[in-house]
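To illustrate the input format used throughout this study, we show a single complete record. The first block contains the structure-token representation of the backbone; no residue identities are included at this stage. The design step must infer an amino acid for every position from geometry alone.
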């Protein structure tokens, strides 16, 4: 559909030729550019304050993935005011406000509409030094792939909805979804990382594949090194799989080369295709910088798990061993 639309040819629109960018980059001076993104979705938890926090953290993530610092945010909220107390809407906005404040940014306004199904998120504007811009097109053969949050939020949320897991058992997962990717972004800038994407609804496999296409390379993942939240593998084996995981995997299968044990293949692939809400960053790190990057993450008490590496290959294949 988007191919039929005309393109903007403004030279200040720095990533106008990059099809899988996490955010738009617009140059405002010789040294700096704006980073702009937007994201919103329906509630994934019952607690309205926590929902606001998670939605805000998710929306801010695109700016962090590109090495930017969030400056301002606009609320986007849809709410059934005719049948739900306005206090719930206020609490959602409070969650978003607190998370934006934690990010050092400012909520400068927003827009609301009446809608039978609640939805909330942010339009975020950040600032980045052009010389430190991190994109999904900067991966090179030999780079190590580092993940900064475990996988499995979609599966755990599905299990909670199916009453296979109590909500309080998912506190670790929801807490991590509400955690900003600010520390991981700071570690990337400190270590000189050049390539990154954040892991959200298109899954680890989907967002990695976008990076591979943008960088004209392929990759190898080591399944046993991929971190998952507690009980994700158990719930996946019981069929607690969100519909989006199946859609992701159907799209990505032609680009996957499974070389692991046959008996774990189906569960492994569907877990790696699980759509994440406010997932971590996936960075492709030069081997000469990997030690400093992992140390910078550890200093910030942030996960840094090497899960694979970039290889040559214009076919953009993900080999999983």
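Output of the design step:
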């Amino acid at each position: 559909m988007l191919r039929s639309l005309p393109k903007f040819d403004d030279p200040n629109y720095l990533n106008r030729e990059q099809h899988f960018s996490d955010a738009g980059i617009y140059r405002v001076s010789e040294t700096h550019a704006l980073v702009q993104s937007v994201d919103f979705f329906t509630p994934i938890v019952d607690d309205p304050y926590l929902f606001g926090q998670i939605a805000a953290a998710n929306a801010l993530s695109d700016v962090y993935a590109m090495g930017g610092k969030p400056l301002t945010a606009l609320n986007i909220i849809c709410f059934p005011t005719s049948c739900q107390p306005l206090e719930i809407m206020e609490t959602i906005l409070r969650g978003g406000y607190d998370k934006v404040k934690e990010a050092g940014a400012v909520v400068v306004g927003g827009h609301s509409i009446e809608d039978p199904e609640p939805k909330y998120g942010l339009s975020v504007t950040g600032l980045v030094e052009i010389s430190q811009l991190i994109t999904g097109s900067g991966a090179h053969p030999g780079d190590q792939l580092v993940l900064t949050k475990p996988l499995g939020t979609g599966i755990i949320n599905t299990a909670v909805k199916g009453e296979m897991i109590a909500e309080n058992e998912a506190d670790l997962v929801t807490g991590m979804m509400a955690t900003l990717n600010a520390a991981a972004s700071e570690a990337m800038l400190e270590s000189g990382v050049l390539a990154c994407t954040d892991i959200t609804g298109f899954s680890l496999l989907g967002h990695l594949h976008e990076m591979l296409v943008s960088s004209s390379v392929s990759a190898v993942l080591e399944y046993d090194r991929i971190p998952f939240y507690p009980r994700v593998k158990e719930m996946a084996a019981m069929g607690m799989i969100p519909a989006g995981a199946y859609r992701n995997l159907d799209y990505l299968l032609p680009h996957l080369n499974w070389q692991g044990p046959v008996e774990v293949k189906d569960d492994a692939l569907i877990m790696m295709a699980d759509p994440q809400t406010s997932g971590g960053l996936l960075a492709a790190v030069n081997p000469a910088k990997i030690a400093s990057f992992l140390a910078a993450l550890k200093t910030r008490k942030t996960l840094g798990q090497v899960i694979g590496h970039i290889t040559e290959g214009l076919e953009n294949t993900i080999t999983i061993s």
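Structural context for interpreting the output: The mean pLDDT is 97. The CA atoms of residues 165 and 208 lie 29 Å apart.
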